[in-house]
Amino acid sequence: MAVDSMPPIVFTQLNYLLTHSPHSIKVEQMWSGSKNPALLDRFTLLIPFCLDYIKWDVIYNAQFPLLAPDIVFGPEDENFRPYHAGGEGDLKPKNSLSDWNCKDPTRLLSLILELRSLYMAYQKKRVGEVDDERLKFEINTIYSREGIEMYMSSGVDKPEEVKLAVPLLEMDLNKMVAGATWRHQQKIYLQVIYPVSRKYLAMASAPRLKLVSSPELKAFFSIDEFRLPSWLDGMCMAEYLPTLEEMLESQIRDAISSIEVRRRFITALAIPFGRPVESDPIFCRKATFLACSGVFTFLVHITLPLQFPRQQPAVMLQSSQHFHSHPGNAPIKSAMLQDYPWSPRWDVAEMAERIFDFLVEECLNFKKYCNEVLVQQR
Amino acid sequence: MDAIISLNKIQISGPTLASLIQRVSSAAGDVDGLLFGRVSHIAPVTLSDDSSSSAAAATTSDQPNLIATVTSFFSSTSTSTFYSASGQIDTSTLNNLLSTSDDRLIGWFSGRRKTQLRPSMRESSVTSALASSIQFSSQVQNSTETLTFPPCVFLLLTTPFQDQLIHTHEYKAFQFRSSTDSFDPKTLDVVNLGPAFRGHYGNFITPNSPFPDLSFRVKGLNCESMVEDEGEKEKEKFGTFCDEGFKIGRLKNLMGSDAANYTAELEELYNSMIKKLNGLAKMVEQSSAKVLEQENHNMKLRYKVAGFE
């Protein structure tokens, strides 16, 4: 990020926004609007909304960095008027811009958050205006759930549809995984997309459903593995969601208990291999050990899949003595080894022992391979 | 009701548009300002060879055929001069700005480099507030009924995101409709010199843009020192020439026996005109240098406040 060329007053506001936002807002690009193009005073923010991003251009004036910024919304949101002044003499409600203080670094963030919540209300209103019986019914029946985001997608060459992002499970995932250091709240959402049909259909087709999770969650729970319960004819969201949540909750509990299984396995590996050089203490997905065979010293990287112990860990060897001449003198590594004797029914001590036995043989092959590579490089 | 009146198109003269673009592209940062002009009613032309099109014209002629004409503009050196950060109109400042001009307010413009060619959040609020203000409305000219027209014209000027050699600027004109709370894009008709426009062009008031609003008196602007290096006599003589004008009848004297005297007289006139022009040019040069110096100084102060250095 070109820090030097942004007016410091603006930079502190942007920096505060990026580090303190409850949503993970990103800056897509920054550029200059002044005659002297070295001064960056405008940038595009990618703001997560309804499992997608909305792009807003924030426009400062580098010549007058003390002035409040202006915002250009996306091309589909031309009718979004967050601070509509109304007629003369109306009561002017206070908003984040009305008493702008450029010295306060929190202002940009509070402006964006205020606009985002107004945008949420705006989209909700648009969805509410859609003349579709089934949609009206669905929205009314799940209205009591908190935090639902809606988005009405319409455009010249796009089909009219309503997107819902329904947050699932009331439990706080951040607190369930011991020691997790996620900065943002982890959540699983059900994305529901209803095509808008103007006429009443007795047998409406199933909406398009997709489970989406915050990206960091993948470290211990894979939503791709989760099979959505089937949508029966004539079903509605209010019926569907409880079943889904029940299934999801039990699988998440399994995922959390499987962290413990992986931890016990890594502890067991320490008996034949010695203390790990490095290991993932939170999700227990990775461990690295230092091993030697005679004078040949190498690292053993062990990666544990989420389906452990059903699926065996992947092992990779990395020499501490053999290096590629180029590029960059990288150490020579073996291929992923995933085909060695394995049974999920063994206890963890036996699993560790079997891997060790396998590597006693395999490391000789790896040593031979390393020497061959060195010969070729000469 | 102002809400129902839809403009047919928005006109602007070539020089006004050119000086507007020049203003925006020469500014250090973003600028905005007011657009002046008038809104007039044009009698619908229903005469046509084609009967079907005349029928169509007859149905649309219920709507008054209005054309907004931008004749001049006022711009300051920054944005947010007559409105607040959240887009509310500062009525007293706007009245103050308008009091210096005889022209009628029909809208405003915003110039911002390298941005999307659509109204921003604040621009929408400002335009909407202007369009709903009865106070700043003007009368429609040539209209049979009394129609008032609020300042609802908005002209957006920007430059492309990538620097280009040929395509250096973009603009779009809108009319804000209070009834639907939306911007209607309108064609901006550039009235230029040329055979097709000759009659039309005469209708324009001489394109001008007022001197920027300065709250203090500029020293030396009104002083009579332009030809001070010349003698009083010269000045007087020049004065008389100017007062009398050089009548066409006297030009006849250039022919015939007395021609020599008159040629000298004419040359003298030209000489003093050139001297006066030179003096003016010198003054303009000096004052421009002072303005530049002051602007640089102001910019430094602003950077200091913004935390640079």
UniProtKB/TrEMBL annotation, chain A:
SUPFAM superfamilies: UBC-like
InterPro entries: BRE (IPR010358), UBQ-conjugating_enzyme/RWD (IPR016135)
Source taxon at top rank: Eukaryota
UniProt keyword annotations, A-Z: Apoptosis, Cell cycle, Cell division, Chromatin regulator, Cytoplasm, DNA damage, DNA repair, Mitosis, Nucleus, Repeat, Ubl conjugation pathway
BP GO terms, sorted: cell division; chromatin organization; double-strand break repair
One Pfam family, short name: BRE
Recorded GO CC terms: BRISC complex; cytoplasm
Localization per Swiss-Prot or TrEMBL: Cytoplasm; Nucleus
Chief location category: cytoplasm
The family this protein is said to belong to: Belongs to the BABAM2 family.
Name of the molecule in the record: BRISC and BRCA1-A complex member 2
Organism this protein belongs to: Centaurea solstitialis
TrEMBL record, chain B:
Recorded superkingdom: Eukaryota
CDD domains for this protein: Abraxas_plant (cd23656)
Gene Ontology molecular function: polyubiquitin modification-dependent protein binding
Record's GO cellular component terms: nucleus
Name of this protein: Uncharacterized protein
